[in-house]
């Protein structure tokens, strides 16, 4: 029977990073991955990287314009380019792990007991493997609501399967207005598809600063993306060459004909087939692996990292989870989920929306006295160069301390700019430091001078 000091289940961001570090530290380590099409994990194969490659191609295509046929041709090329990119990264990730001395074992892992897992190989054979420590890094899987007609419908896609569609849909209906729904809406609109987004809630982007959500909504409307708020899908039927989506809104029921329907209704922690209970690993009521602030599970020799641990679903959170675990195994053990600082994020719309910290409403609810700085994107020279005048920049500052409480940027390059605000918040820098800093010109970041001077 094979034995390893460390067994990582799932080739995710946290797992592969930790495996490399443990192997470099002289310990034996194996990664168990159920699919050879997933070496390197979700992000590089079916999520962040391919979507951003398509998003980039879509923006270039929109700038070129032309007929639907010309756009459809460019779309097919973009999908092929994305495939080449992901397969190159998959191979690189595999070589990197193996080169670091990590054994990569293909198969589906299930706990047998507290020290053993069974790996079921693609040919159906099984292997029992013993581990000293285990790290669960099995990610998340799409949640598909049980709507009539959805199962087995050839026009219904998840984010993963839609990315493999070579034919540009004339009309795409998206169920769900979360991160995936909005990103796909934005880039398919740029590719030249008519897009309708079905939103169950009344409010658009309900977790975001209301003014920022309004700015994004306005830009969607200007781009011709149709949003149906307060809407519920009652069925998705398959026609001859299209789907028919029945949607109930305040106005009544309407039937939408679409070449493709994307279900983007959330992703849940993935423990399918893992049998964590056999190893004494408990779950939260929402089905995530239960962990403490050092990502230890209810078994002292087992940790969980990334989406499966039930936190925010971002690749960089999985990466940071690996830092927390590594700090216990190879460092001073000080890093926890509570001291890693503010968590920024970017939604890759056109332009991107990025945020870190509190919204204006949240700051007021906390009873704080606040100062609010705002600047329209059109006031930034670089936005004019890029022809991206749409958008708004907004920063919330504590009136007493001068510390930045939140930054909300809906503008070109916001995904790069937001890092500065995260750093300033974590380092307790007063807003005046960013206000008076020298920025290169012409850049979007230099807008921070004018934005914060407005306080
Ligand atoms: C469309 C889309 C776009 C996204 N865009 C972004 C973005 O721009 N930026 C960002 O930060 N995040 C983005 N995310 C989220 C990000 O992809 C995830 O948060 C991240 O990939 C989670 O990584 P992980 O380490 O938890 O595990 P994953 O990378 O999900 O890896 C889990 C692995 O475990 C394997 N596995 C599962 N069960 C078993 C088992 N029993 N045995 C063996 N192997 C198993 C799976 O095959 C998989 O390869 C996006 C997600 C989606 C779906
Ligand atoms: N740029 C990024 O970092 C990025 C991009 C894409 C995805 N992600 C990650 O992937 C995760 C999953 O994304 P997601 O968009 O699937 O989930 P989400 O939780 O962000 O959004 C799901 C949305 O679907 C709605 N919904 C649920 N059931 C519905 C129904 N029956 N009809 C209509 N709407 C319904 C919910 O109200 C919610 O607004 C996100 O949490 C995010 O962390 C990150």
From TrEMBL:
The keyword tRNA processing is assigned to this record: no
Molecular function as annotated in GO: flavin adenine dinucleotide binding; NAD(P)H dehydrogenase (quinone) activity
Cofactor: record remark: Binds 1 FAD per subunit.
Sequence ranges assigned to domain Pyridine nucleotide-disulphide oxidoreductase dimerisation in this UniProt record: 343-450
Keywords: FAD, Flavoprotein, NAD, Nucleotide-binding, Oxidoreductase, Pyruvate
Domain FAD/NAD(P)-binding: 5-316
SUPFAM superfamilies on file: FAD/NAD(P)-binding domain, FAD/NAD-linked reductases, dimerisation (C-terminal) domain
Similarity comment: Belongs to the class-I pyridine nucleotide-disulfide oxidoreductase family.
Coiled-coil stretches noted in the UniProt entry, renumbered to this chain: none
Keyword Ribosomal protein included in the entry's annotation: no
Gene3D superfamilies (alphabetical): 3.30.390.30, FAD/NAD(P)-binding domain
Binding site for FAD: 52, 307
Active-site residues, as the UniProt record annotates them: 441 (proton acceptor)
Disulphide bonds in the chain: 43-48
Organism per entry: Lactonifactor longoviformis DSM 17459
Protein name as it appears in the record: Pyruvate/2-oxoglutarate dehydrogenase complex, dihydrolipoamide dehydrogenase (E3) component
Residues that hold NAD(+) according to the record: 176-183, 266
Known cofactor(s): FAD
């Amino acid at each position: 029977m094979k034995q390893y000091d460390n067994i990582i289940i799932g080739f995710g961001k946290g797992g592969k990073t930790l495996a490399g570090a443990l192997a470099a530290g002289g310990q034996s380590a194996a990664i168990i991955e159920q699919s050879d099409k997933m070496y390197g994990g979700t992000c590089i194969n079916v999520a962040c990287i391919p979507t951003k490659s398509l998003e980039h191609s879509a923006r270039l295509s929109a700038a070129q314009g032309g007929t639907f046929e010309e756009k459809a041709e460019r779309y097919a090329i973009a999908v092929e380019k994305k495939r080449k990119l992901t397969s190159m990264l998959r191979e690189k990730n595999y070589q990197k792990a193996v080169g670091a001395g990590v054994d990569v074992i293909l198969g589906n892992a299930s706990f047998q007991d507290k020290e053993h897992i069974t790996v079921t190989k693609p040919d159906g054979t099984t292997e029992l493997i013993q581990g000293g420590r285990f790290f669960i890094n099995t990610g998340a899987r799409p949640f598909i609501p049980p709507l009539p007609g959805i199962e087995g419908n050839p026009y219904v896609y998840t984010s993963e399967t839609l990315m493999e569609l070579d034919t540009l849909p004339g009309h795409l209906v998206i169920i769900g207005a979360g991160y995936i729904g909005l990103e796909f809406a934005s880039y398919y609109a740029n590719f030249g598809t008519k897009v309708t987004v079905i939103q169950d809630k009344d409010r658009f982007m309900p977790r975001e600063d209301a003014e920022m959500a309004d700015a994004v909504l306005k830009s969607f409307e200007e781009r011709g993306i149709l949003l149906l708020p307060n809407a519920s899908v009652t069925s998705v039927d398959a026609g001859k060459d299209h789907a028919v989506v029945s949607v109930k809104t305040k106005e009544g029921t309407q039937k939408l004909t679409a070449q493709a329907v994307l279900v983007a209704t959330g992703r849940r922690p993935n423990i399918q087939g893992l049998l964590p209970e056999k190893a004494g690993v408990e779950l939260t009521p929402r089905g995530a692996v239960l962990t403490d602030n050092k990502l230890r599970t209810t078994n002292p020799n087992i940790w969980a990292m990334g989406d499966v641990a039930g936190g925010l679903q971002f690749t960089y959170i999985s990466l940071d989870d690996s830092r927390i675990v590594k700090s216990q195994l190879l460092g001073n053990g000080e890093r926890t989920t509570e001291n890693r600082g503010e968590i920024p994020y970017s939604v890759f719309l056109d332009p991107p929306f990025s945020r870190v910290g509190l919204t204006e409403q949240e700051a007021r609810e906390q009873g704080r006295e606040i100062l609010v700085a705002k600047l329209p994107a059109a006031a930034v020279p670089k936005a004019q160069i890029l022809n991206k005048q749409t958008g708004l920049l907004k920063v919330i500052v504590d009136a007493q301390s001068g510390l930045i409480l939140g930054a909300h940027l809906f503008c070109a390059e916001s995904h790069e700019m937001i890092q500065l605000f995260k750093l300033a918040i974590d380092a307790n820098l007063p807003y005046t430091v960013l206000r008076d800093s020298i920025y290169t010109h012409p850049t979007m970041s230099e807008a921070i001078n004018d934005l914060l001077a407005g306080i």
